[in-house]
Amino acid sequence: MNNKIPIILASASPRRKELLEQAGFLFSIMPSNAEEKMIEEEPNLIAENLAFQKANDIYQQLKKENKNDFIVIGADTIVHYNGDILGKPEDEQEAFDMLSMLSDRTHQVYTGVCIIYRGKGSKQVEIFSERTDVTFYPLTAFEIKDYIGTGDPLDKAGAYGIQGPFAIHVREINGDYNNVVGLPIAKLYQTMKSMGLV
Fold first, then answer.
1. Rounded to whole angstroms, how far apart are CA atoms 88 and 100?
2. What is the pTM of this model?
3. Is 1 part of a structural domain of the chain?
4. pLDDT tens-digit profile of 121-136?
5. Which of the following is catalytic: 69, 76, 97, 146?
6. Known catalytic residue: 76?
């Protein structure tokens, strides 16, 4: 895919980088360091707003020094279970507690995406979110500790990565698999296509 307008990914996530590369996007990376604030209550709106905060932070930085057209993509993934938002665990104990809670149950993964396009001096913003239901097999304490020992869960919302060694514990997903990885790449492409950006 030959996108003619420069794309900036406002995320340091290696998973999002890989998904964009696999889809053929040409882009650069400029992670947002903005302090994230949860100002919504519904999980889809929380994810969307956090994605907007990231994208808008980079947009504001770039527009000061760049008079050319560009696109900023921000994304944020959260895990929702039984009314609670599960972010990245602070330590191994919190990761253990999260995975124990999700064992043999179904939870929701929401990824919010914000696309900000600066074109001909004007600003166009498109925000959406995707939901995927994920069900785990029952997990033993040994299996959870063994997984935590890999170090994989500590930088991931809900304390797991579906595409890594934890895949053996996922019974079922209902929805977009890539959304759980961290970016609903098909919906992103279709949205950018509808905006005339690809």
1. 15
2. 0.93
3. no
4. 789 999 999 999 999 9
5. 76
6. yes
